[in-house]
Structures are given as C-alpha cells and as structure tokens.
C-alpha cells in the first residue's frame, strides 16, 4: 500500500483519507495547539496520534504560537 509524507503546513486546505500525526516532546518547537488541530482536521476517515501523552498535553497548552513579523499592516497602509 502506498504511503506519503506531508507537513501540516502543506496540508492546509486539503483532506486525506487517513492521517498519522507523530507527537514527541523532542519536537517541542512544533507542539502548538493550532498545528495539532489542523493535522487532526485533515483526516476524513482515520486520524492516529502516535507518540507521548505528555507531548499532546504540551501542544494543547501551547495556544500562543510564535509572533510573525510580516510588516503586513505597513504594506496595506
């Protein structure tokens, strides 16, 4: 059976029959609530979270994300 890998960032706006999301505390920089939510909502029929319960808890608690410095407000004015 074919297998494919894709980042959560690239999957935004798409859906897949099955999604497997690794959650490990070693990847603490990527443990963000919005990323986990996006990953989970990409799966149409099956979503599997693989890893540590502690990593999922860290992601759920981390709702702030990183500040983006885009200068968008300046460009629009």
Structure description:
- The chain is an alpha+beta fold.
- It has a single domain, classed as 3-Layer(aba) Sandwich (Rossmann fold), CATH 3.40.50.300.
- The protein contains four helices and two strands.
- β1, α2 (33-42) and β2 form a beta-alpha-beta unit.
- The chain is globular, with a radius of gyration of 15 Å.
Brief characterization of the structure:
By secondary structure, the protein is of the alpha+beta class. The chain has helices at residues 8-11, 33-42, 53-61, 72-76, and strands at residues 16-23, 43-51. It is built from four helices and two strands.
Helicity level: 25-40%
CATH fold label: Rossmann fold
Largest sheet: 2 strands, parallel
Radius of gyration: 15 Å
Mean residue pLDDT:
87
Uncertain residue segments: none
Instruction: Please tell me what the overall shape is.
Output: globular
- Order of helical and strand elements: HEHEHH
Percent of sequence in beta strands: 15-25%
Distance between the termini: 52 Å
CATH architecture: 3-Layer(aba) Sandwich
Number of folding domains? 1
CATH superfamily: P-loop containing nucleotide triphosphate hydrolases
* Widest β-sheet, arrangement of strands: 1-2
What would you call the structural class? alpha+beta
The count of strands amounts to 2
Highest-level CATH class: Alpha Beta
Count of discrete alpha- or pi-helical segments spanning 4 or more residues: 4
């Amino acid at each position: 059976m074919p297998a494919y890998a894709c980042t959560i960032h690239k999957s935004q706006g798409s859906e897949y029959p099955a999604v497997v999301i690794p959650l490990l505390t070693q990847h603490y920089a990527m443990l963000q609530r919005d990323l986990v939510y996006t990953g989970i909502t990409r799966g149409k029929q099956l979503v599997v979270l693989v890893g540590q319960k502690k990593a999922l808890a860290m992601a759920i608690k981390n709702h702030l994300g990183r500040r983006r410095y885009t200068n968008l407000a300046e460009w629009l004015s």
